[in-house]
Write a structure and sequence with these properties.
Elements: H1 2-38, H2 47-51, E1 59-62, E2 68-72, H3 87-97, H4 109-117, H5 128-137, H6 145-165, H7 168-178, H8 188-196, H9 205-214, H10 229-245, H11 251-258, H12 277-293, E3 310-313, H13 317-342, H14 355-367, H15 370-377, H16 382-388, E4 393-397, E5 404-408, H17 410-418, E6 421-428, E7 435-439, E8 457-458, H18 464-475, E9 482-485, E10 512-515, H19 516-521, H20 525-535, H21 537-546, E11 565-566, H22 568-579, E12 583-585, E13 590-594, E14 600-602, E15 608-610, H23 614-630, H24 635-638, E16 655-660, E17 667-673, E18 676-684, H25 694-697, H26 699-702, H27 704-716
Parallel strand pairs: 1-3
Antiparallel strand pairs: 1-2, 3-13, 4-5, 6-7, 6-18, 8-11, 9-10, 12-15, 13-14, 16-17, 17-18
Helix pairs in contact: 1-6, 3-9, 3-10, 5-6, 5-7, 9-10, 10-11, 13-27, 18-20, 18-21, 18-23
Protein name: Penicillin-binding protein
InterPro entries: Beta-lactam/transpept-like, Glyco_trans_51, Glycosyltr_51/Transpeptidase, Lysozyme-like_dom_sf, PBP_transglycosylase, PCN-bd_Tpept
Family: In the C-terminal section; belongs to the transpeptidase family. In the N-terminal section; belongs to the glycosyltransferase 51 family.
């Protein structure tokens, strides 16, 4: 009996120890959860953190027609609301990742028990809410088992808090906004845009299944990796199977969808690719200053890359596209002619410079290169760096047929790129000042200098309307007044010049008595020189400044022929004043800026100024109409390009002006209709590189065709409503603009395209 009693006591002791251990364990678990929730194992998110999770939201750049044309981001994330998600995407997500999502409160007890019993062999038990908690507040976490347990406890606590804080629909939206789909796509909106070029709401069932399938391992199941095509396809079909299992789609529908291949419209988003790249970089530079002047309520600066601002710009996505297409189409053709003309030229692409000057250009280009910067940082000597430029290397180069892999020395690549013609083009509405298109170069990835807002170049004869406007205003002259085109010399000392100045006409001829209208139409240099002599250079400089020109203008008579460097942005803004009845409106590019909650935090007001009266402005417009009717811009009437026949042909009134600087280094054209003005500059990066002949290098050949192609595309798009109407004539116009001639004047530009002479002008 004693033995039996001892055994009973032993059993009771085991029971006591078991319950003691259980109590300690239970208490330990409770304490573990309490300590974790109190932040003993690291900071836990507060109520405000849960309300406003730190999610690195990208700043969006939005066009005037509602298209996202670019982003600023560290993580390319743009949030989407639950209402914008297709239901088959939501159901595929729940069916695959958390079948009991709508039944639990953050932790799936049944799934957790299964995972413990099976030791995780059938997968983990993380709910969607737990995965969201992990993504929001600590990522993948530690692999050390003790730390991993603590992190799992924290996930549970955060998940429960999230379930209390948000609805199930909000949790799904938050989850899909947080997921990294790789290739720069963070969140479902970026993923849909980059992989499919769609909004999430437009995703099909199989596309939704593809994205849900990626969640298991976005890198492994990346559909853009062709070597893993079958693996990705199988994973997508597994998701379709889960959708059948959970009653989302039928077995027959699954079999139908399984047969469909994976189709991508892969468009990676980067700062150097996409639409309006030069404008976006200009905007980024502007926003760096903006954030310092527009602080948050707490006094801190907005983070352009994390705070999810929405910048509503004046850019029209269609006009921007048409401008980029026009630049590409014409310069692709023009570049062929340039390469052909330089083929056998010694020291190509440079013209009339010494070997020492050439070497100076090359030395500067080498020092500005990324190769030089990196080698210098790595401690290489100047001699070692220069020597490396003669060593052949594998590289990708820009061509108009796409990037090309090749082998050449870095020095040869510099010469290759020096051959390329560059451009700056801007279009704006004269009445609002809204910039509608901005093309700062031919390819931002390879040529990052912005020739619209950054680069000032010699404007040539596009400056002449400012001279004529000054004369009409101050001397009350009209376009129909006559002046003698004859040999003219301005003596040394007059207007501060240090030598006699005798400007020549580009064709070497003199026309005798001529109206101002004909003089500007044919860009007669002697007439412009005589006109500035009448009013003085200072008056013309003052007029240009009133018209918004901020570039430095020398107070010299030679500015009458365009011997001054001005940006495309300034020139288009100034010319638009005449189309806007004499009122200058400063070019603008921002409509409003909102924070991530949609609150407007900045809404710029237009800057305007009365410069000349309506009569003077209209007289200048009529003068510029003569340029496109019978002068240097007459090619717009029949589509000529100087070396190629384009199919644009405009019969509506167009006010325009061509310009060509000395030695054909710069070609310009600025053209206007009542509600749109656009200006284009074309030239090489280095002024020493240019066409030899005026026939190829003049603005009517290099720049005007881009305007023509662009406007033809705009006119073909009825949504844009670009005007073909005449410019509005002021009531009781006091200046004579309709010039009657007693006999027909044979215009030297009114000839067949095949017999076209060199009618454009030199700047000097």
């Amino acid at each position: 009996m004693a033995t039996k009693k001892a055994n009973t006591n032993d059993f009771s002791e085991y029971k006591r120890k078991f319950w003691q251990l259980f109590a300690y364990g239970f208490l330990g678990v409770i304490l573990l959860f309490l300590f974790a929730s109190w932040g003993f194992f690291g900071k836990m998110p507060s109520f405000d953190d849960l309300e406003n999770p730190d999610s690195n939201v990208a700043t969006e750049i939005i066009s005037s027609d509602g298209v996202v044309i670019g982003k600023f981001f560290k993580e390319n994330r743009t949030p989407v609301k639950y209402e914008e998600l297709p239901q088959h995407l939501v159901k595929a997500l729940v069916a695959t990742e958390d079948e009991r999502f709508y039944e639990h409160s953050g932790i799936d007890a049944k799934g957790t028990l299964r995972a413990v019993v099976r030791l995780g062999r059938d997968g983990g038990a993380s709910t969607l809410t737990q995965q969201l908690a992990k993504n929001l507040f600590h990522g993948e976490g530690s692999k050390f088992i003790l730390f991993r347990v603590i992190q799992k406890v924290k996930e549970w606590i955060i998940a429960i808090r999230l379930e209390r804080q948000y609805t199930k629909q909000e949790i799904i939206a938050l989850y899909l906004n947080q997921v990294d789909f790789v290739n720069g796509a963070v969140g479902i909106r970026s993923a849909a845009k980059i992989y499919m070029n769609k909004e999430p709401k437009d995703l099909t069932i199989e596309e939704s299944a593809l994205f849900v399938g990626m969640l298991k391992n976005p890198s492994l199941y990346n559909p853009n990796r062709k070597k893993r095509a079958q693996l990705v396809l199988d994973r997508r079909n597994t998701v379709l199977g889960q959708m059948v299992k959970n009653g989302v789609i039928s077995e027959a529908k699954k079999e139908e969808l399984k047969k469909l291949p994976i189709k991508l419209d892969f468009r990676p988003e980067s700062h150097s690719e996409g639409s309006a790249t030069y404008f976006r970089e200009y905007l980024r530079d502007y926003m760096k200053k903006w954030v310092k002047d527009h602080l948050k309520e707490d006094g801190t600066e907005y983070d352009l890359y994390r705070d999810g601002l929405k910048i509503y710009t004046t850019i029209d996505s269609k006009m921007q596209q048409y401008a980029e297409e026009a630049v590409f189409e014409h310069l692709k053709n023009l570049q062929k002619e340039f390469f052909e003309g330089k083929k056998d030229q010694e020291n190509a692409p440079f013209v009339d410079i010494t070997p020492e000057q050439t070497q100076q250009i090359m030395n500067q280009a080498m020092k500005n290169s990324e190769r030089w910067r990196k080698m210098d940082l790595n401690g290489k000597t100047k001699e070692e760096i220069i020597k490396s430029f003669d060593v052949p290397a594998k590289m990708k180069i820009f061509t108009y047929e796409g990037e090309k892999d090749t082998i050449m020395t870095p020095k040869d690549s510099i010469i290759y790129y020096k051959h390329f013609l560059q451009t700056g083009m801007m279009a704006m509405e004269p009445r609002t000042g809204h910039i509608k298109a901005w093309v700062g170069g031919v390819n931002y990835k390879y040529f990052q200098y912005d020739h619209v807002g950054q680069g000032a170049r010699q404007v040539g004869s596009t400056f002449k309307p400012f001279v004529y406007a000054t004369v009409i205003e101050q001397l009350q002259m009209s376009p129909c007044d006559s002046i003698i085109d004859s040999y003219f010399t301005m003596p040394k000392g007059k207007w501060g010049i240090d030598a006699d100045w005798s400007p020549k006409n580009s064709d070497g001829n003199y026309r005798g008595t001529i109206t101002l209208q004909k003089a500007l139409a044919n860009s007669v240099n002697t007439v412009s020189a005589k006109l500035i002599d009448k009013v003085g250079p200072q008056a013309v400089v003052d007029m240009a400044k009133e018209l918004g020109i901020t570039s430095q203008i020398p107070v010299q008579p030679s500015i009458a022929l365009g011997a001054v460097d001005i940006t495309v942005e300034e020139m288009v803004g100034a010319m638009s004043t005449f189309a806007n009845q004499g009122v200058y409106v400063k070019p603008s590019f921002i409509i409003k800026i909102e924070d991530k909650n949609g609150v407007v935090i900045d809404q710029p007001t237009p800057i305007t100024k009365d410069v000349v009266n309506k009569d003077v402005a209209y007289a200048v417009v009529k003068l510029m109409e003569g340029v496109t009717q019978s002068g240097t811009g007459a090619r717009l009437k029949w589509g000529g390009g100087g070396f190629i026949q384009y199919d644009y042909s405009f019969g509506n009134p167009i006010a325009g002006k061509t310009g060509t600087s000395q030695n054909n280094s710069d070609g310009w054209f600025i053209g206007m209709v009542p509600n749109l003005a656009a200006g284009i500059w074309v030239g090489n990066e280095d002024r020493a590189a240019h066409f030899k002949s005026t026939h190829m290098g003049q603005g009517a050949t290099t720049a005007l065709p881009i305007w023509g192609i662009f406007m033809k595309k705009c006119y073909a798009d009825s949504d844009l409503d670009v005007s073909k109407e005449p410019f509005e004539k002021p009531e009781d116009l006091q200046i004579k603009v309709d010039c009657w001639t007693p006999k027909k004047v044979v215009d030297s530009t009114a000839v067949a395209p095949t017999e076209e002479p060199d009618m454009d002008e030199f700047g000097l």
